[in-house]
Every structure is written in C-alpha cells, then in structure tokens.
Amino acid sequence: MVNKARKKPRKSVTKARRSFVLRGLFALAVIIVVAVAAVIVYARVVSPIPLPLSIINMGSPWESTTPVYTGAGTLVAFVGDDSARPDGSSVKYEAPFHSDILNEDRTLLVWLPPGYNETAEPYPVVYTLHGYASRAQTWANELIDPLEKAIAAGVIGPVVVVMPDFSVSGNGTDDPATWFDDRSGNFYINSNLGRFEDHFFEEIVGLVSSSFNVRTDPEGVVLMGSSMGGYGTLYYGVTHPSFSHVLVPIYPAADLRYGIRGNKLADYDPAGYALIDTDNPKRIVNAAAGGGLLGVTEQWLYYPVFDSDKNPGPVWSEDRPVWERLSAVNPVEILDRDNPDLSGQRYYIIVGSADDFNLDAHIPVIVPRLAAHGAVVFPETNVIPGGRHEPEFIAAHIDEIIGWIGRELGTH
Which residues of 85-96 are buried (b: 16+ CB within 10 A; e: fewer)? Predict the structure, then answer.
C-alpha cells in the first residue's frame, strides 16, 4: 500500500507538466499568429517589409542563360571567360572587347543578318540596352530568333544588332570585395563605378561604326532597351537627341525620383505627385515578393551607382545625396530643365499595368513631356493591361515591336 500511495503523485505531476507545456505552446502559437498578423497589416497599410541585400541578391534573376545560335546570320561574340559564353555553329568568337576608358575587358555581342555584305548599302543598326541584373546575353536570347524570322518574312529589312554588357563587371562575375553584387547594372551613366556613358558613345559606337557596315545617321540608328535599359534608352534619347530617332523603351524607369506623397509604388495622382527629395536606402521600389509583403529596396537598385561618391572617383569628387545624383540624370527632369529639341524622334513605349516596379505610373509623367519637346510617341495605348515586369512581357510583344521598327526604318 505504501508503494501504491507513492505512485499516484507521479501521475499527477506528469499530467500537470503536460498541461503546462500545452498551455505554453498555445500561448506561443497565439504570439506567432498575432506577430504575423501585425506584419501583414503593417505591410498592407504602411509599407512592405524591406528585404536584406543578401536575400535580394539570392533571389535576383541574374542572367546566366547561354545563347545558342545556329541561324543563317552570324553572332560575333567578343568574349573571354564567361559563364554564359554563346554557343552554336553560327557563332564567331573574337577576343573580349577591351575598354580603355574602363581599363578592363568586357563582353560584347554583335549579330549580323543573313547575307550580310561589307560592300552593300550600310545596314540600319539596333543598339539594345539590357535591364538591371541582365546582360548582353539577355537580348541575344530574346531578340535574335524572332528578328531573323521577321527579316525572312519581309516584316523588316536586314539590320545589325549590337548587344553590349552594362553589368558592373561586364563578364557575369561578382567581386566579393564590393558590398554590392557586380552583376548588377550601372545605369548607362558616368559615375564613380566607371564612365559607362562615355564607354558607350566613344568606344562601343566607335568600334561598331568602324568595324561593321552600319548607318550612323539618326534615321538608321535604333535604341532599344528594357527596364534599366529602357531608362538608358530614354536618357540617351533626351541627352543625345541626334544619335537616334527610332527609340523603343520597354517598361522604362522614366522618372527616377517618382513619388506620390513619398511612395514610389502608389498609382499616379497629379495632386500628390512630387519628386522625392530625401534619401532612404530602405525605400521600397518593388513589392512583388511575398505577395506584396516584402520589398526590394533602393539600396539594392540605386545605391551601388548613385552612392558611389562615398569615395572620390573618376567622375564625382564630392559626396552628395543620392537623390541629387538621381536628379542630374533623370529623364523627366532633363526634359524640364534642359529643354532639348526632340524633333524627328519616334518612341515606342510599352509597360504592363501590373508592373512590379510600378513603372506604368511613370507613363503620364514622361509621355506628355516627350510630346511637348517634339517627339512622337507610339502606340496609342502605352500601358498594356495585366502585363508584369518580366521577360514574358517582352516575348508577348516582340513581334509588334519589330514590326514597328521595320515600318519606321522603311518609311523615313
């Protein structure tokens, strides 16, 4: 009986402990649910949660797809060691393009159409500018096949296509010594990361004009780009208006300081529109992650280039606010400030209504300004319902873009 009396309390203690653990787990579950709900409410009402750079870089769509070309034209690849080195029976390899301005070798791709002839009439030339996290290979993968088919069908005449690499490294690699990923973009401008605008006009255009049978008049030169490359197309269009008269910005970052009461992701509202004039590296520029709960920041997108004046460099000797550096090269502000004459220019601008960077909201800001300075903007509707900031959007519209370029080159 003594032994039995001693066993009963043990059962009671065990039961009490189990009950305590269950109550603790329930309380923890409640805390987690409340915390998650609070985050969701904050993200929906105030702002998405900024993602750390390491997470953004891990999830970024860095271009790594190797172009494989076996068509009737020739893909001239100025390339060295490159993880996405072009392949195929119609690829002609050359040494990497050395830039004296940047003091480094860089990848450059040039596509020559079927029947290319050095002694024929000079060919129109299309300069393609890729987006942030993309490379020269991006346009090789997206443009060459549909363009070759369009030439064969008589939709467009033969053209030469130039695909430069405007990632920071220019070869698909990341330097672990830098705080940012060197596969990111340089925005086609002169900054302390390098004189990339000078590199384009003085070296790339110079090489193409002297090495290939291409036109150099603005009616025979096409500028075409997407995302950051769409920005580059606009920026070069308004700062070098005599270089090209046929321009195709696809979901372009047209207003680098766009804000509606300080929010870059808000729909356009003329009453609330104002250029952002404060620095905030955690300001959200893209809230597509996590169903709109998580955001890509300005620190990832803008700061590698526009905060590169932290130390004196080849272009900037003084450390200025990021928004001031953005202002100096913002197409919207250049149009207002410098009043360039864009007579003769035609733009084909499209962006999806569900653009992940909210670049569709830039359309009512940029299009009237281009028209006011003499440019003609196509198509009649620039914002395409439902389209997002992704390669599928380009693929869905590439044939109409090629057709428009063909008409412009053929009628002017």
Answer: bbeeebbeeeeb
Distance CA 165, CA 79 (A): 10
Residue 35 in any domain: the answer is no
Whether 204 is in a domain gets the answer yes
C-beta separation of 156 from 406 below 8 A: yes
Asked whether residue 33 is domain-assigned, the answer is: no
Q: What is the pLDDT of residues 305-350, one digit of tens each?
A: 999 999 999 999 999 999 999 999 999 999 999 999 999 999 999 9
The pLDDT tens digits for 197-214 are 999 999 999 999 999 999
Closest CA to 406 of 227, 222, 214: 222
Q: Cα–Cα distance between 314 and 385 in angstroms, integer?
A: 43
Tell me how many domains the chain contains.
1
Whether 305 and 194 have beta carbons less than 8 Å apart is answered as: no
SS3 220: helix
Q: Which of 92, 76, 106 is nearest to 171 (CA)?
A: 106
Q: Is the residue at 276 inside a domain?
A: yes
Beta strand pairing call for 160-164 and 108-112:
antiparallel
Residue 310 to residues 306, 307, 322, 330, Cα–Cα distance (Å): 9, 6, 10, 20
Cβ atoms of 245 and 344 closer than 8 Å = yes
Q: Report the side by side order of strands in the sheet with 346-348.
A: 91-94, 74-78, 108-112, 160-164, 125-129, 221-226, 246-250, 346-348, 376-378
CA distance 367 to 142: 26
Q: What six digits make up the tokens of 175?
A: 């330097």
